[in-house]
Amino acid sequence: MVHFVNVTMAYGSHIVIDKLNLHVEEGQLVVLIGPSGCGKTTTLQLINRLIKPTEGDILVNRQNIKNVDPVELRRKVGYVIQEIGLFPHMTIKQNIEIVPRLLGWDEERKAARTEELIQLVNLDRKYLKRYPSELSGGQQQRIGLLRALAVEPPIILMDEPFGALDPITRESLQNEIVALQKRLKKTIVFVTHDMDEAIKIADRIVLMKDGKIVQAAASKELLSNPANEFVEQFIGRHRLYSGKADTVADVMSDEIVCAEKTLSLIEAVALMRHKKVPGLFVIDDTKKLQGKVSIEQIRKSELSEQDALETIGIEQICPAFENQSAREVFDRMEAEKIDALPVVDEANTVIGVVTRSSIVRSLAEVVWGNQS
Amino acid sequence: MSNILPAMLSHLRITFLGVLAAVILGLPTAAFLIRHDKLRKMLFIIVDAIQTVPSLAMLTFVMLIFGLNDTTVIVAIFLYSLFPVLRNTYVGLASVDKGTIRAGKGIGMTDLQIFSMIRFPLAAPMILTGIRLSIVSALGLATTGVFIGAGGLGMLIWRGIQTRNMGMMMSGAVPVFLLAILFEYVIGLFEKQLNKRQRRSIS
């Protein structure tokens, strides 16, 4: 829908946009984000020719915009800005109908479209006769959005539209955009410097710096595979720690409660009580896994307290292997309702344990990042 | 008393022609100055300088060109009116919120539409203030026209003074006073009406 082909924009020797190539697909909501001065707003304004590129071509709907009258172009591309820019001397109705008026629609068609629009966002009809100054900032920007949607442009440009609103209003408008986009499937180019906002609404995030694209990807991809340190820094706390929970070795804990098979039953019970566990993993003198015993087993047995653990009949168990996938082990623990599994290396030596709490911990890391 | 009405009409004619000329020339000039900063600074120096010339001196200068008649007073009023009309119109047009202009451009208004649909309507109260100030001071200035043989209410005042005729003097002074109050009030009312919705948007 929107193609940038080797676009450069410079004021004299100061390069604002540097050989930019970008493709915005139809029906996608693409967010341009980056530190101030990265060229994101300039990129946006190149699309409706508020700024002319120094070099390169921009295609909107397969048409090179060099060959389109800028006024015509702008009437076909919705535009929403941070300053909102409603016309203070016009009523809300007149504001919504301004582009249809510029295009010379008749009264009937304008009225019908306005009716559709106010139903789209559940706007109370009483507002139509009011002036912008009588509305709150959030309400004003909803009108700004309707004004942009009025002639059903396939493309909408939004330049930090919620930047000047308070956090609560901003959030509700973000939700509204997401809901509207689901129904309308517009091609939207959205500029922001707020990563939360980008993650919330974007189909694709384009991170820019010094007039260049550093990384363009779906938000999940960007967060889990930042292209370089700059991206990592910019996304900061939003980073997904995937790849950290790939193998059992990544998630296991070394706080395993083991007992040598020669240990007496009374000592084994004391150990369980001390460690507050209902069972023990049994090993031999070279730390090779033998199996496990539970407190139940010991209670039911008729052996004397001084007998060794091995005489009770150790239950064989299939351990987790250190290089096995963590996911596989989690699935098995879930399916077989196992609370803890010993982890062994290739030589069957016990090196750690995977418990239900290790699952929770690694999930938490994915969600909130590695705090430790 | 029967000569009050003709004198008043003549007084109004002089006042309005002078201010009207200033408006006709001032509005387009102010619109042009939005994009020509250097010219604006120069022009404003000249207009400011005109404003400082005392009225009798001004009438004398203008009289040298236009002679002893109404035209001289009209031209003097025109020159004095340039300052409030030009300055207020310029400030009104130039101080329209940048975001509003940007939005207009962004949704596809032509330069002419930005002017006629945004800038001018939003500057209207300010322009009206300039016109009001011009009219009220021109009503006063027109009375001095009597010194160079022009008509108007000034003649009644002057004759009244010369003949120590208090009634005649008042028959000139009271209408001037009432006209000034009337215009001040009526135009002010319009301004208020126009300002109402815009003021709220500023706050």
Element order, helices and strands of chain B? HHHHHHHH
The number of distinct β-strands of chain B equals: 0
Number of strands of chain A: 16
Instruction: Give the low-pLDDT segments of chain B.
Output: none
Find the structural class of chain A using helix and strand composition: alpha/beta
Q: Helical element count of chain B?
A: 8
Could you give me the name of the CATH homologous superfamily of the largest domain in chain A?
P-loop containing nucleotide triphosphate hydrolases
Tally the helices of chain A. 15
Beginning-to-end CA distance, first to last residue of chain B: 51 Å
CATH architecture term of chain B? Orthogonal Bundle
Question: CATH homologous superfamily of chain B - what is it?
Answer: MetI-like
| Main interface: chain pair and counts | A-B, 29 and 25 residues
Oligomerization status of the protein chains: heterodimer
Query: What is the CATH topology assignment of chain B?
Result: MetI-like fold
User: What's the Cα radius of gyration of chain A?
Assistant: 31 Å
**Radius of gyration of chain B, rounded?**
20 Å
Averaging pLDDT over every residue of chain B, what do you get?
91
Q: In percent, how much strand structure appears in the residues of chain B?
A: under 5%
Can you describe this structure?
The complex is a heterodimer of chains A (372) and B (203). By secondary structure, chain A is α/β, with parallel strands linked by helices. Chain A folds into two domains: 2-238, P-loop containing nucleotide triphosphate hydrolases (Rossmann fold), CATH 3.40.50.300; 248-368, CBS-domain (Roll), CATH 3.10.580. Chain A has helices spanning 40-47, 70-75, 92-96, 98-102, 107-120, 137-149, 167-184, 195-201, 219-224, 229-235, 248-251, 265-275, 295-300, 326-336, 356-368, and strands spanning 2-11, 14-24, 29-33, 55-60, 63-64, 77-81, 155-159, 187-192, 204-209, 212-217, 258-260, 279-283, 289-294, 320-321, 340-344, 350-355. Chain A has a six-stranded mixed β-sheet, with helices on both faces. Chain A has a four-stranded antiparallel β-sheet with strand order 2-1-4-5, with helices on one face. Chain A has a three-stranded mixed β-sheet with strand order 11-12-13. The two termini of chain A are 45 Å apart. Chain B has 203 residues and is mainly alpha-helical. Chain B has one domain: MetI-like (MetI-like fold). Chain B has helices spanning 4-33, 37-52, 55-66, 70-94, 98-106, 111-143, 153-162, 166-202. The radius of gyration of chain B is 20 Å and the shape is elongated. The A-B interface holds A 48, 50, 71-76, 79, 81-89, 98-99, 102, 131-134, 144, 147-148, 157 and B 97-110, 113, 117-118, 121-122, 197-198, 200-203.
